[in-house]
Each structure stands twice: as C-alpha cells, then as structure tokens.
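Record type: monomer structure entry
Structure origin: computed from sequence
Chain ID: A
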Amino acid sequence: MKDKIFGVLQRVGRSFMLPIAILPVAGLFLGIGGSFTNTTMLESYNLLGVMGPGTVFYTLFYVMSKAGDIVFANLPVIFAMGVAIGMAKKEKEVAALASVVAFF
C-alpha cells in the first residue's frame, strides 16, 4: 500500500518537471528583453542611439520579452498539459489535447 502511494506521488512529481523546466528560460527572456526595451534604462546609460526604439537590437529584445511574457501568461495551461503528459501511460498527445480542452 505504501509503495503504491509513493509510486503515484513520484509520477505526480515527475509530471511537474516539464513545466518547471521551461520557467528559467522564459524568465531570462522576459527579464533581459524587458530591461533592454525600457527607455528609462536606455536613457540613463546613453544607449538610445544603438538600442533605441526602431533599431534591430530593440526589436530583438522586444521579441524576447514578449516570448517570455507568452509563457508566463499561459502558465496554467502549460501546467495542465505537463501534468496530463506526465500522468498518461499511453497516448500522451491525446492526454495533452484533452487537458487543454478541459482547461477551457
């Protein structure tokens, strides 16, 4: 009985690993992109000419910021999919799709 409960809890713990593994990369994208698109920061370091709005660097950092923001905005759906994939024994794709449908 104890081993069965421990096995289920271990599967639940492993199912959280996928969504949690995405968070550091999304956080870096959001932090770096947000800081280098902040006009106050760019003005204080005199970087408006190189990295100001309308430049290639600004666009790159803006896309990075929005990519991180997309992950954090959809975090509940990502966790629902991760738990469904981790708990499914077969047909993990169907479980992920069913979790998204059930979420909404």
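Annotation 1: Residues 2-103 form one domain.
Annotation 2: The two ends are 35 Å apart (CA to CA).
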